[in-house]
Design goal:
This protein has 695 residues and is an alpha/beta fold. Helix content is 39%, strand content 18%. The chain folds into 4 domains: 98 residues, OB fold (Dihydrolipoamide Acetyltransferase, E2P) (Beta Barrel), CATH 2.40.50.140; 145 residues, no CATH class; 155 residues, Rossmann fold, CATH 3.40.50.300; 157 residues, Rossmann fold. Helix 6 packs across helix 22 and helix 18 runs antiparallel to helix 19. The chain binds adenosine-5'-diphosphate and magnesium ion (MG). Magnesium ion binds next to helix 9.
C-alpha cells in the first residue's frame, strides 16, 4: 500500500487523488465534493450493465450496444454549425463498423490505427452500415483495469462540466488509494444480524460492482448506515432534552380550565380528551414536554392548545402561541381573546408591524407578567422579548422551527413545555421514525356531524357554470372561497390573474353577491378588514391568493373553488378543502385545472378519492417522492443520499430499533467497540446540525 493510504480520507482534499489537479478539484467542488471521503460517498445514481458485450451486428437501430474494437482509421470534420464530428472506422471479430463522437476535440489524436477500445452507444443501422454514436468509451492501455466498459459501470449524479467518465476515473483512483483506510464502524453484531456488507467491500461494490446483486447489497448497507446514524441522532437528541429538569411546575387542574370547557358549547371528542390527558401528564412530569400534536385540518387542535395554555395561566405562568404567518397569528389572537377575555385571561398579539411605542409598552407587560398569553409569529421568541415566567410554548405548523426554537430557548436557560401542532400529514406509518425525538399525540377523528366535502374536478372552460353554482349557494345564505395560486417566481402575473378574475366575477356570474379580494400584497389592516368582514358574513365570496391557506375558520363557508388546481401540491389542496365543511350542511370543493402532467391528474384523483389527510400524504409521497414533500422537508429530516423513507421503511424501522437499544444501553457510546461509531456519529451530527441542534 502507498503512503497515501495511511492518511484520513476525510481530511484529504480531492486534489490529492491521482489525476485530479486544481482545475478538476474546482469542478468537483461544484458537486460539493471536497474531500476524498466526499468523492467515495458520492454514490452512483444507477448502473449500466456493460459486462456482456453486445455486438452491433445483432441489433437494431436505437439500441444500446457495447463492443470491443480496433481502430482502422479516423477523421475529424467540422460542420458549418460549429459541430465537430469525429468518425472512426473500426473492426471487431464480426466485421467493420463506424464509431462517431460529437464535439470531442481531443478524441482524434487518441484514435491512432491499431488502438483497441471499448465503445458503448446508440446503434444506427442505415445503408448497410453499422454506426455507433458513442456515449462512452474506454481505451485499453496495457494492463489497466477496465472501468468504463466491459463491466457493470456506475452512473453518477453530476452537473455539466463533470463527465461520467471523469467521475468514474476519479472515484476509481480514490478507491484504489483509500478504500482500505476505511474501517468498519457499525457494531459487529448488527452487521451479522442485518446481513450487511462490511464497509471497505461495500465501498468497492457500490461503485464498481462485480454483479448487480452485489451492487444492491452494497447499497443496502449504505442505506442502513444513513438511517441508523439519523436514528441515533434522534435518540440522543431526545435523551438530551429529557436530561434537564424544568424550572416550573403546575398545580392540579382547576376552575379556569373547567370554566373554559363549560363555555365551549360542545364537548371534547374522545380523541381530543385523550390527547389532552397525554399533554397534562407530560406537564406533570419534572422534564419538559416535547410533544407533537398531529391532527388533520379541522380536527380541533386549537381547543387542545388553549387548554394547554390555560394550565400555565392558572398557575401564574405564561404561555406563547406561535403561528407561521401574521394573518394566522391575528386569527389565533382574535379567537383566543374572544373566548378567554370573559374568563379574565390577558391575551396579547405581538405583531411585526406594531408602532415602537405600543410595542415597548406591550413588552413591559410581558416582562412583568401582566399578560399571560402572547400570540405572534416566529419573531415572538427572538430578540427583545423577555417573559416573566414562560412555561408553555405552542407552535402551529412549524416543526423544524419548533425544534430550533427549543434549542435556542434552552441556551437561555428556559425549559418550557413544548407542543408542536401540525396538520402537515406525515403519514402515520412514518411519524414515529421521522419525529423520533418527539412524543406524538394524534387527533384521529373529526368532531361529530361533519359531512365529507363533495369534491369535483372541472375543466377551466366549465368555470362559469361553477360560479353560477356559487351564486346559488350564496343565495341560500352560504359563503364561498375562490382561490388562485400564487407562486413566488411569477407573483406579479399571478396576482394580476387573481385581480382579473375578481373583476370578471363582480361584473359577471357573481354580480349579485358581495365579493372581496384578498392577497398578500395588501396592507395588513386591509387584509384584516376583509377577513373580519368575511367572518362576520358581510362578504359572501372571498377571491383570494393562497394567503388563506392554513387555519382560517369560517364555519358558514360551504364552497371552495380552486382555480389552476394543478399548481398546488396535494397537501395544500387538502388544507384548502379543509376550510369548508366546518359548519353544518353539505360542503363542496371544486378543482379546476388543465391536467398537463400525470402527477397533476393523480393528485386530483386522490383528492376525489379521499378526505383523509394521512392517506393523501401517503399518496403525495408516492406521486412525488419524499424529497419533494414540503411536509417531510419541514419535518427536519436530512436529505438522504440513498435512502428513501417510503421504499426503505423496513430498514428504517430496524435502524430505529438498533439505535434505541444502543442508546439506552450505552448512551455515550463509551464501550471500546463503539469507538469508531462514536466518531462517525459526531461527524454526522456536525454535518447535519442545520436540521437539529445537538446540545
Ligand atoms: P384545526 O385542528 O384545523 O386547527 P380547529 O381547532 O380550527 O381545527 O377546529 C375546527 C372547528 O371545529 C372549529 O370551528 C372548532 O370550534 C370546532 N371544534 C373543535 N372541537 C370540536 C368538538 N369537540 N366538537 C365540535 N366542534 C369542535
Ligand atoms: Mg388550526
Amino acid at each position: 500500500m502507498s503512503n497515501m493510504a495511511a492518511k484520513n480520507p476525510l481530511e484529504t482534499q480531492v486534489k490529492d487523488v491521482k489525476m485530479i489537479g486544481p482545475r478538476r478539484a474546482e469542478q468537483l467542488a461544484r458537486l460539493k465534493l471536497y474531500t476524498v471521503h466526499d468523492l467515495l460517498y458520492h454514490f452512483p445514481r444507477e448502473y449500466m450493465d456493460r459486462s456482456q458485450l453486445i455486438s452491433p451486428f445483432d441489433r437494431h437501430s436505437g439500441e444500446i450496444v457495447t463492443v470491443l474494437g480496433k481502430v482502422i482509421s479516423s477523421q475529424e470534420n467540422k460542420t458549418r454549425k460549429k459541430l465537430t464530428i469525429t468518425k472512426a472506422v473500426m473492426e471487431c471479430t464480426r466485421g467493420v463498423f463506424y464509431a462517431v463522437w460529437f464535439n470531442q476535440f481531443h478524441i482524434k489524436k487518441l484514435l491512432k490505427p491499431g488502438t483497441r477500445l471499448y465503445i458503448s452507444g446508440k446503434l444506427n443501422n442505415s445503408f448497410g452500415n453499422h454506426e455507433i454514436q458513442v456515449q462512452d468509451y474506454e481505451i485499453i492501455t496495457g494492463d489497466s483495469d477496465s472501468i468504463h466498459a466491459g463491466r457493470i459501470v456506475p452512473v453518477y449524479p453530476s452537473t455539466s462540466g463533470v463527465s461520467q467518465r471523469m467521475l468514474r476515473t476519479f472515484v476509481h483512483a480514490a478507491l484504489e488509494q483509500w478504500y482500505l483506510s476505511y474501517r468498519e464502524f457499525l457494531p459487529r453484531r448488527l452487521l451479522d444480524k442485518e446481513g450487511l456488507m462490511v464497509l471497505p467491500e461495500a465501498l468497492k461494490q457500490v461503485h464498481f460492482p462485480d454483479t448487480r446483486a452485489l451492487a444492491e447489497q452494497a447499497r443496502r448497507r449504505f442505506i442502513f448506515e444513513e438511517l441508523f446514524l439519523f436514528q441515533l441522532q434522534l435518540a440522543l437528541l431526545r435523551r438530551n432534552i429529557m436530561r434537564v429538569k424544568k424550572k416550573h411546575s403546575y398545580g392540579v387542574i382547576s376552575e379556569l380550565i373547567n370554566k373554559y370547557i363549560a363555555g365551549l358549547g360542545f364537548s371534547l371528542t374522545a380523541a381530543q380528551s385523550r390527547v389532552v390527558d397525554e399533554i397534562m401528564t407530560d406537564m406533570d412530569s419534572p422534564y419538559p414536554m416535547n410533544r407533537l400534536l398531529q391532527g388533520d385540518v379541522g380536527s380541533g387542535k386549537t381547543v387542545v392548545a388553549v387548554l394547554t395554555l390555560l394550565r400555565a395561566v392558572e398557575n401564574g405562568l405564561q404561555g406563547a402561541l406561535m403561528a407561521p404567518t401574521e394573518v394566522l397569528a391575528e386569527q389565533h389572537y382574535l379567537s383566543l381573546n374572544r373566548s378567554l377575555s370573559p374568563l379574565g385571561v390577558q391575551v396579547a398579539l405581538l405583531s411585526g408591524g406594531m408602532p415602537v411605542k405600543e410595542r415597548r409598552a406591550l413588552l413591559e407587560q410581558i416582562a412583568t407578567g401582566k399578560i399571560s398569553i402572547i400570540v405572534g409569529t416566529q419573531a415572538l421568541l427572538q430578540g427583545d422579548v423577555e417573559f416573566k415566567k414562560l412555561a408553555v410554548v405552542i407552535i402551529d405548523e412549524q416543526h423544524r422551527f419548533g425544534v430550533r426554537q427549543r434549542a435556542s430557548l434552552q441556551e437561555k436557560g428556559v425549559y418550557p413545555d413544548l407542543l408542536i401542532m401540525t396538520a402537515t400529514p406525515i403519514p402515520r406509518t412514518l411519524s414515529m421514525t421521522v419525529y423520533g425525538d418527539l412524543d406524538i399525540s394524534v387527533i384521529d377523528a373529526l368532531p361529530p356531524g361533519r359531512q365529507p366535502v363533495r369534491t369535483y374536478y372541472v375543466a377551466p372552460g366549465e368555470l362559469p357554470r361553477v360560479f353560477i353554482f356559487v351564486a346559488r349557494q350564496v343565495a341560500e345564505g352560504r359563503q364561498a372561497y375562490v382561490v388562485c395560486p400564487l407562486v413566488e417566481e411569477s407573483e406579479k402575473l399571478d396576482l394580476q390573474a387573481a385581480v382579473d378574475l375578481y373583476q370578471q366575477l363582480v361584473e359577471g356570474e357573481l354580480r349579485g353577491c358581495r365579493v372581496a379580494l384578498l392577497h398578500g400584497r395588501m396592507k395588513r389592516s386591509e387584509k384584516e378588514l376583509v377577513m373580519q368582514q368575511f367572518r362576520a358574513g358581510q362578504v359572501d365570496v372571498l377571491v383570494s391568493t393562497t394567503v388563506i391557506e392554513v387555519g382560517v375558520d369560517v364555519p358558514n363557508a360551504s364552497v371552495m373553488v380552486i382555480v389552476d388546481a394543478d399548481r398546488f401540491g396535494l397537501a395544500q389542496l387538502h388544507q384548502l378543502r379543509g376550510r369548508v365543511g366546518r359548519g353544518g350542511g353539505q360542503a363542496h370543493c371544486i378543482l379546476s385545472a388543465r391536467l398537463r402532467s400525470r402527477e397533476a391528474a393523480e393528485r386530483i384523483k386522490a383528492m376525489k378519492a379521499s378526505q383523509d389527510g394521512f392517506y393523501l400524504a401517503e399518496k403525495d409521497l408516492q406521486i412525488r417522492g419524499p424529497g419533494d414533500m414540503a411536509g417531510v422537508r419541514q419535518s427536519g429530516m436530512p436529505e438522504f443520499r440513498l435512502a428513501n423513507i417510503i421504499r426503505d421503511r423496513d430498514l428504517l424501522r430496524s435502524a430505529r430499533r438498533w439505535a434505541m437499544a444502543l442508546i439506552s444501553k450505552d448512551p455515550e457510546l463509551r464501550a471500546g467497540e463503539y469507538h469508531l461509531l462514536r466518531l462517525t456519529l459526531e461527524r454526522y451530527n456536525k454535518e447535519n446540525s442545520n436540521f437539529y441542534h445537538i446540545g
